[in-house]
Design a protein that fits this description.
The structure is a single chain. With about 260 residues, this protein is an alpha+beta fold. The protein has 2 domains: about 80 residues, no CATH class; about 140 residues, Jelly Rolls (Sandwich). The protein is about 20% helix and about 35% strand. It contains 6 helices and 16 strands. Strands 5, 6, 8, 9, 10 and 13 form a 6-stranded antiparallel beta sheet that branches. A hairpin with a 2-residue loop joins strand 14 and strand 15. The chain is globular and about 60 Å long.
């Protein structure tokens, strides 16, 4: 069992900016009730205490809190209500496919989740050891998040366990390019759920910022000349306005994107 992370919110709230991967972000104030929502709902959002996912996110509880504050500041301070936000309140959830992909955007033909929907995760590799756009608007070009939400990226996950096809990822967020991350050295197996997790340095994308993610498949990513598909998921937290987070399908809701 994993002990729930205990953090000193008073110390965190003293900080007015935070440095995340080469960026200095301004942080919003948080009322005591908002802090209580974060602390209580964080535990319920991320599953059981013995999961690998929970272990990854629990270790970043402080950083995620500061990420929520940064996105809250960009959205001009709506009240944060955890996993039960009202229509115009701020909330958070695990990242869903519709938060980064969908069929109502001009770049849907490229992203299309490799299956044309906004309800599943996939990445298709036609060639081994070739870097491929995963989240993009055009060839090697970022897509832009909506005005209603931001992302706190903490990891990737693959359902192709114990041998995922993806071996590397790189991010370009708000025009800051990360170094490529070798996922072979980062893999954590969850034998209970049969999922491979790949923790990466925390990346924060604010509303209306560009996000580009590129991945590369290993030598097993093309079998007998036939392209393979990795059930690859973007892991972390989506922080957004309630009317955005509460959507069941993002493809038919262009006003949110």
């Amino acid at each position: 069992m994993i002990e729930t992370a205990t953090i000193n919110y008073d110390d965190l709230l003293q900080k007015k900016t935070v440095d995340i991967y080469g960026r200095t972000l301004t942080l919003s104030d948080m009322a005591p009730d908002e802090v209580n929502f974060y602390d209580a709902h964080f535990d319920g959002l991320f599953g059981t205490s013995d999961s690998t996912l929970r272990r990854i996110l629990d270790e970043r509880k402080e950083t995620i809190f500061q990420g929520v504050r940064a996105i809250k500041y960009k959205l001009q301070g709506p009240f944060f209500r955890g996993t039960v936000p009202g229509d115009s309140e701020l909330g958070f959830s695990l990242i869903r496919p519709g938060h980064v992909k969908g069929w109502n955007r001009a770049w849907a033909a490229r992203n299309q989740l490799q299956d044309g929907t906004a309800i599943g995760w996939r990445q298709r590799y036609a060639s081994a050891m070739i870097w491929t756009d995963w989240l993009s608007s055009a060839a090697a070009a970022p897509f832009v998040l909506s005005r209603w939400h931001g992302l706190i990226i903490t990891h990737l996950a693959s359902q192709n366990s114990p041998t995922p096809f993806t071996v590397g990822v790189s991010f370009n967020i708000a025009r800051i390019q990360s170094v490529p991350f070798d996922l072979n050295h980062l893999a954590l197996g969850d034998n209970v759920n049969n999922v491979s997790f790949f923790p990466v340095p925390t990346q924060i994308a604010l509303p209306e910022e560009g996000v580009l993610a590129r991945t590369v498949g290993g030598y097993l990513s093309v079998v007998a000349g036939v392209p393979v598909i990795d059930s690859l998921q973007l892991g972390g937290v989506c922080v957004g306005i309630g009317r955005f987070l509460n959507q069941e399908s993002y493809g038919a809701n262009a006003r949110y994107w």
